[in-house]
User: Fold ABC-2 type transport system ATP-binding protein from Amycolatopsis magusensis.
Amino acid sequence: MIEVQGLVKSFAGHRVLTGVDLRVEPGRMLALLGPNGAGKTTVVRILSTLLRADAGRATVQGLDVARQAAQVRRSIGLTGQFSAVDKLLTGRENLIMMGRLQHLGRGAKARAGELLEQFSLTEAADRPAKTYSGGMFRRLDLAASLITSPPVLFLDEPTTGLDPRSRTTMWEAIRQLLTGGTTILLTTQYLDEADQLADRIAVLDDGQVIAEGSADELKAKVGDERAELTFDDPADTARACAVLAVPQTELLSVRISGVRELRLLLERLDGAGLEPASLRVKKPTLDDVFLSVTGRRGGEKASAA
Assistant:
């Protein structure tokens, strides 16, 4: 449904994209991760026909985004970082206006009603959008992008600035779209968002894809699980570090691979007369992946040109 090959884009002599390759299968979601300035929004703007690439090729539903831009626009929806909602209009008026702009005619009012119900906005439908909470506002923005039921949807950091409850509500709405067969390209700086929603994840940095795979595949590249143990007595901590042959730290962290190795570790400690005060098995996270491949934590801002 979405295919990108060798995408290149520069602004004022600064190359933002340096040969990006991406592919999204029908009814699936690809999450595009990366620090600020990595080129995520530039990719979305090119795919949604708002920018032209300097080189490379991109297609949506087999349509070339440069040569067949008008046809592409009829088959996509876009929710950007900045809302397209008119705050002075009511929620219903916003959706009806979007429907008429998309040539729905008399069907615009009925479609607006369907979307207001789908996104739990019926009670607030006839209030000005400026009175909406942040979560309601973003749901209305997402609803507006779906006015024509597009098969392909671009979500550019759709939950930025939302509180946890509003983010969870948005996630549920996005899951419903995936269940209905919508193909989605999501950009986000929330690694848990990509982990929860995406079938595949691509990490973009310095204008190119530096890692790609499912969440589990990417985590597996970072390393095995780790057992983290603490002891009440610092002397016990020192002894445990010696028994397990690991550097001495307040939090003892040992790489393990599965339950068998964890059991052997505990048996070695028990044999030395040592009992941990706490034990936690920590699995690799997408944040670990992000740090491993980019050299910085997820969400950390890169310097912009």
In short: The longest helix spans residues 164-179.
